[in-house]
Structures are given as C-alpha cells and as structure tokens.
Amino acid sequence: MKKWSLLLLTLVLTVVVAACGNNNNTNNQAAGNEGASQGSAGNAANEQPAETNSLESVKASGKLRIGTEGTYAPFTFHDKDGKLTGFDVEIAEEVAKRLGVEPEFIETPWDGIFAGLDAKRFDAVFNEVTIRDDRKEKYDFSDPYIVSRAVLIVPEDNEDIKVFADLKGKKAGQSLTSNLTDIAKENGAEIVATEGFNQAIDLLLSKRIDATVNDGLSFLDLKKQRPDVKLKVVDEMPDAAESAALFNKGNEELVQAVNEALTAMKSDGAYLKISEKYFGADVSK
Q1: Residue 211 β-bridge partners
Q2: What are the beta bridge partners of residue 233?
Q3: Which parts of 143-192 fold into alpha helices (H)?
Q4: Among candidate residues 64, 84, 86, 135, the one with its CA nearest the CA of residue 283
Q5: Rg (alpha carbons) of the chain, rounded to whole number
Q6: Where are the alpha helices (DSSP H) in the chain?
C-alpha cells in the first residue's frame, strides 16, 4: 500500500509541475506579444510627419526670407531716408505679395551671400545674380528678370585705358565672387577686392584703382543720381548677361511659384512699372 500511495503521489506532483510550467510559458508568450505590440505602437508614435517642401514652409511661416546686399544701386540699396529699396528689392516685394507672404530682407555683403544661402539663412537671393553654368551646378535659378551688359569704367581724365585689353597690369576694383571679376582677370588686371559697386566707384574717384568692370545699368543709375561724377564708360561687352533669383537645389515648388509670379507681373504691367521707375525702359530683354 505504501508503494502504491508513493507512486500515486509522485504522479500527482508530476502533473502539477507540468501544468505550472505550461502556464508560465503561456504568460511569458503573452507578455512578449504585449511588449511587441507596445513596441510597434511606440515606433508609430515616434514616426515624423513627411517633411514639407520649401513653398509650404514659406507659406506656413508667412514670410519669404530674401538675401540681398543693400549696397548695390539701383538694384538693392538704401534711399536718403535709410529705407531699403531698389529694382531687385521691389521685384522681390511684388513676388512675395503674389505668394501671399511678407518679404523679410536679410542684408548680406555680396562675398558672403552664397554662403548665407548655403546655410539656409534665406529662402532666395534677389541681387542681380547672373545665371552662370558653374552656379547652376550647385544652385537653381528662377526665370531671368533682368538683362544687362558689363562695362569698363575709368576716370574721365584717364587716356590709358580704352578697351578691356588695356586692363593688363592695371588695378581693377572688383567683388571677388562676381562674374565681372572674371572679365577683369581674363584681361590681365590686378584685382583689388571691393564689397560692391559703390566701394569700387569710391576707389576709382580717389584714384586708388585704375578701373572697374561693372554693370552698365548700375553706371546709368549712377549718372542719373550724380550727373557730374567724373567717370566714363570706355568699353562694353557685346554679350548680355541674364540675372535671376537664386535658390538652393531641391526647392522646385518654390522656384515654380516664383516663376509664375514673375510671368504674371510681366503680363499685367507690374514688372514694366518697376523697370521704368529705375531705368526708363523694359530691362527684361
């Protein structure tokens, strides 16, 4: 009897232990499934919304951040009251208006304006930026909104420099990153770095440089504002340069919206009004 009782007790204990083991496994599996479910929910909660494109960001912020010099008349400069104005400034203001946002101008020296765009300090640059193949490799441009020609400017009493080739060995005041500087270099000039058109003119008038290769429209405006200035144009490049708004690559929606605004401005007369105000003519072609 003792043997049978002991055998029966052993069987009962075996069944109980097995049942407990199965119950633990079931609980562990359930806990594991619950953890996985929580993990999935956590991942879903941590998912970031799709990044908005630049046009959406501009409209969400309510402003278009615009890089410009503020020292390059008549394109971007300060009037007698200190207000930022100019052809490019008014074009940018009208574009922003048609995008339904406010323009926010961030004044930056020309030689730092590309770095500012690289650092995304602004959404676009409106500063008579010439469209060039090397720039198109890194940046996107809007449709061109102004056409100009490079001219060679010297003091009125200078008789040594008559054509671009005469720049060889002469000092030319130039912005280092401007395409106009390339013309001076190609003709053998010694480059004196300037911060923009106004400084080049000041250096020229004080005879600290011999010449500057600069924008013909800027010179026309200078003569309009200061008809007695003792400077003259002695040569002009035959090919016209097109300028446009500049953007970082990957902002297709914003570029397209700006292009649509520029097209509408030219169609309804807003562009011509601004152009005639500064140049007395249509400078888009």
Answers
A1: 172
A2: 153
A3: 179-186
A4: 86
A5: 34
A6: 2-46, 54-61, 87-99, 110-118, 133-136, 179-186, 197-205, 216-225, 252-268, 270-279
